[in-house]
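Form 7-S
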Amino acid sequence: MNFDRHSQLKLSQLQVLIAVADWGSFSEAALQLRMSQSAVSYAIATLEEDLGVLLLSRGRYGAHLTPVGEQIVDRARQIGYLLADIAKQANLAKGLHGGQVRISAFRSAATHILPGAIAQFCYRYPEVAVSIAEYDDRLDVENDLRKGRADLGITYLPTSNEFETGDLMRDEFIILFPPSFASTSTKISWQDLTAYPLIMAPDGDGCDAMVYAHCLKHGINLQATYHVRSDATIVNMVAQGIGAAISPRLAAEPIPVGVQVFSLPVPLFRTISTAVIKDALLTPAVFVLLDLLNNSVTVE
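Output:
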């Protein structure tokens, strides 16, 4: 068999190209891949040199695929799907005596829900590797499932009908007030929400969207003063008296001593669930882990 220079293309180069295409910039692709920006640039430059074509146009507004770049990214994605399918077939053959389970979860679920079930799983099936990808919100979790990067996801409802879901627990949204907050009642009014500046996640956060919609339904148009991504940072800002926050309880834990916790005037919950692609060919290990999760977490 004859080999040319194109036969020496590296999978890692194609993965970097896909990441740049998905995120629209070298810096964001580097962040998602946990690589340096120079390593991403080098991988793309080397790939373009090997192929002899320009794959990306660079500009002040990011990196965009050229026409030939779009064609090559489509084929690179197909290679990724085929490689994932090869691994899945091998995992099916190994059953519970090898292979891996790939889990994607939003961060508070990965912190508080997964460890117990995974500990039981690893004790029973030590030959099966478990990997966890943690994200700030559910959109990245669901994208991992769609793109074959995860076998099992932990998300919250509602979600699209392309997924088969199983409820794990209901998580209440709570109001966090600083230690200095003086309440004359155990129940908070909507007006109490204006006593302090509000600290919320950046625009586009799925949980906050639920809160805004819920409050608007009851005539309250929330306006955040601070936008912070990290749940832990938000909670600690409340502890320091900077403002108040509305958060799912799971995301707020552990709650610092002194921070005052109340339910919303009209309670709001999110339903946390497992998710897999409908009609997906799941390995025995995924089924076992689903059972362990369902048995270790109680739905209210």
